[in-house]
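Project standup — Tuesday

K.O.: blocked on the structure for the chain from last sprint. Re-posting the sequence here as requested.
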Amino acid sequence: MFSNLRKFGVNHKKISILHVNNMCCCKIKASLKRLKPYVPLGRSYSSPPGLVGNDIKSLHSIISPPIAKIRNIGIMAHIDAGKTTTTERILYYSGYTRSLGDVDDGDTVTDFMAQERERGITIQSAAVTFDWKGYRVNLIDTPGHVDFTLEVERCLRVLDGAVAVFDASAGVEAQTLTVWRQADKHKIPRICFLNKMDKTGASFKYAVESIREKLKAKPLLLQLPLGEGKAFKGVVDVVSKEKLLWNRPSEDGKDFERKPLLETSDAELLKETTEARNDLIEQLQAAIHRVTLAQTAVPVLCGSALKNKGVQPLLDAITMYLPSPEERNYEFLQWYKGELCALAFKVLHDKQRGPLVFMRIYSGMIKPQSAIYNINGNCTERVSRLLLPFADQHIEIPSLTAGNIALTVGLKHTATGDTIASSKSSALAAARRAGREGEKQHRQNNEAERLLLAGVEIPEPVFFCTIEPPSVARQPDLDYALKCLQREDPSLKVKLDPDSGQTVLCGMGELHIEIIHDRIKREYGLETYLGPLQVAYRETILNAVRATDTLDRTLGDKRHLVTVELEVKPIETPSVTPIIKYAPSVSEDLPKVSQEAIENGIHSACLQGPLLGSPIQDVAITLHSLIIHPGTSTTMISACVSRCIQKALKKADKQVLEPLMNLEVTVMGDYLSPVLADLAQRRGTIQEIQTRQENKIVIGFVPLAEIMGYSTVLRTLTSGSATFALELCNYQAMNPQDQATLLSRRSGLNQVL
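H.V.: unblocked you, prediction finished:
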């Protein structure tokens, strides 16, 4: 029966018909009808492997492969290292695309947003599912730009392994360190792929040494390059002692030949390969797999994705050395006893289908039309349809099991970081098991909860600006657009200015805000107006102060009376939220509702400091006395506490904190002097200057306020030859002179407004 099944193909114009010779396979036909593909891209895709020609697998193995054959991996790197190009080649060689997409041409599969294709960068992570030699690979291409670090963070949270892509001419770069630390945090096994071996200045030795020195990782050399720069033609497999050569007749890189290294013709290469091979503790693939999983070493491969060399061996390494879901130890799974446990890690909005929620299934199964329980939101929702993600086209499927990444339709309240269970009773049972285990091991309750609700840490925004609709009548449309975009992107914050009533956008950088503005125009048809971009400062105090306040109001026939005495003092350990303490006399008989009201008032007061209206941080607040008249509402308690804190903050010596950025500039030696002179004018501090072949790497710190528009200036100073990378370091106190200048400027701006 299956031998007669010829083809199930998809292209951008029509769905190929399922041809069955001589017999009617009604059951197969009915099953495959559920596999509805959605293909908005104007590109041609070949059929998924396993459904072409005579190599036919059962429908079950295609949709739900054995968990040991699943690989959930991410591609991560510094911007411009070649992540998207590598992903594009992977899809081509695995048979999922018929042509090689190019970032410069704007026709890659995973960079499907208009903004990505115009700028040639990845902004949103894109999920791609494909098969390779009997393995199901769920691959996520992540951004490399610092403004979109959260995209990387939330994807790493659900991956079992990762491929770190390096520019072989640059080695470890600024954002490489960031994503590597993120992978360390989630204990993710990695493979290193030294890309761009064909680039002028490529150095295998330098790149490997930078991995060893900067990442403090132990490189496990599985390959050596055959030539570097323009002379690069292939790789040597250290384990098998074979040469892999990509010959010129094979323009797309599909065909390559393996040749054994011979002492007669390759004496020097054989000697070098043997030495590298001897450095491996064992030469078995199982041993390499074991040390990769233990994260005691990282396998290193090389190639050139753009020149179509070295990608197939990388795919083999992914399946051989990176773990399957069952090889990863997720402690929280034991509480679920095989029932559904999934994590929502990304939300997209589709005009036709509504919110699309990406989920990593850790245990159990998801089916269309099934009810699921959102632990974070404490609500039950129904999954209307289940899709297999392939960038921005999706195939509808009847079910998906543990270890897979699913795309669900119909969930209206689920957001990034939410934990999903099959039902409320299942979640409560899991919580009870976690609690019992926590008591045995003397854990605190909140740790058990953390195991159930392990989401994504969302960084605080560093830029903000006002945003206005074209008319007052379009304000609801803007509110809706921002609500949708916030659900997609938790690092985007939206708030209302209490004084002006304007909507304020808060984001991770200039590019981040620019992309949001552009998306509102293209996707929601709103021509909005942005105010000037401003730095998100913070405030703190320098000395301890006490304050007392009484609120006495009569509303109707009810009297509300509260008297509060509290102390606000600075703390040395950085803390974005205030540390709240209670004097023994207060905490003894304090009802829970009153405590919640007090803490709401404290947090509300700390949102706006007395100097710039910026959030207050690095303070501890101690409540020394609280007198509440019977019948006083919790709202009045909050208002009195908030007013008392504002009074204390005004009495204290105040300090503005500004965001300080880690800066790395790569510049040719000839332009080093003007770059250093410019950084000095920007209050920059140089830590060190490294040499990377012909370039100089300037590493230091610079206040964020001084770096706005820096890309244009740097381009002018260096004739377009330099690049730079930024990352938030911390918030530091401004010196008195700079603080006075800032306050004077802000005061003048407010008067103008």
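K.O.: great, moving the ticket to review. Residues 16 and 50 are 16 Å apart (CA to CA). The first strand starts at residue 37 and ends at 38.
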